[in-house]
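Input/output pair, single chain:
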Amino acid sequence: MLDVNEIRRYLPHRYPFLLVDRVVEINLSESIVAYKNVTVNEPFFNGHFPDHPVMPGVLIIEAMAQAAGILGFKTMDKTPEDGSIYYFVGADNTRFKRPVVPGDQLQLEAKIVRESRGIWKFDCKATVDGELACSATIMCADRKM
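Output:
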């Protein structure tokens, strides 16, 4: 289990763009399960949408990519402090199945599909109470800063 302080060792993101609150399971070289607690205080809800707040889909994808990034960094035993950065370089087969709203706990899952020359591919999904909210195949690139 990783709390937010440990997560910040593996991701360069900070408020308001750090979208992973806790890691509850990690199997190096395999998979990760993490959470994003969605609250009405999120800055994006001011404009998306004021009378019907819905978490933007691109931020759900970003949250999945951040969880995948933690898995990649931990698997490589690297951190941003080592001069390494993990770029989000693509998403395929993206599907949205339900809106994510304030009060939801977004469960983020990523599984490593493969790694080749610093390009990683992950199968990802985001669920709320066991119901699929989003799925995507996400690619990240490990590069020097």
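The chain has one domain: 4-144. The helical segments are 4-10, 57-76.
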